[in-house]
Amino acid sequence: MAKTHIALAGNPNSGKTSTFNVLTGTNQFVGNWPGVTVERKEGIYKKDSEVIIDDLPGIYSLSPYSPEEVVARDYLLSGTPDAIVNIIDGTNLERNLYLTTQLIETGIPVVVAVNMMDIIKKSGKQINLEKLSYALGVPVVGISALKNWGLDKTISEALHLIKKGAEEEVSFPHYDNRLEAALSEIEEVLGSTAQARYSRWYSLKLFERDERAQKDLDLSSIQQKEIGEIIKITEKIFGEDAESLVINERYNFITHLKTLCVVDEDQFKLSISDKIDRVVTNRFLALPIFALIMWLIYYIAIQTIGTMGTDWMNDNLFGDIVPNFVSSTLQSWNVAEWMQSLILDGIIAGVGAVLGFLPQLMVLFLCLALLEDCGYMSRIAFVMDRIFRKFGLSGKSFIPMLIATGCGVPGVMASRTIENEKDRRMTAMLTTFMPCSAKLPIIALIAGAFFPNSSWVAPSAYFVGMGAIVLSGIALKKTRLFAGDPSPFIMELPLYHMPRIGNTLRYTYDHSKAFVKRAGTIIFVSSIVIWFISSYNFSFQSVDENDSILAALGGLIAPLFAPLGWGDWRGAVAAITGLVAKENVIGTFGILYRHTEVAENGVEIWKSLQAAYTPVAGYSFLVFNLLCAPCFAAIGAIHREMADVIWTWRAIIYQCGLAYAVSFIVYQFGHVLFENGAIGIGLILAAIILAAMIYFIVRKPVKKAPTITIEEIKEVKEWQL
Ligand code: GDP
Question: By its UniProt entry, which NCBIfam families does this protein fall under (predicted)?
Answer without folding.
Answer: feoB
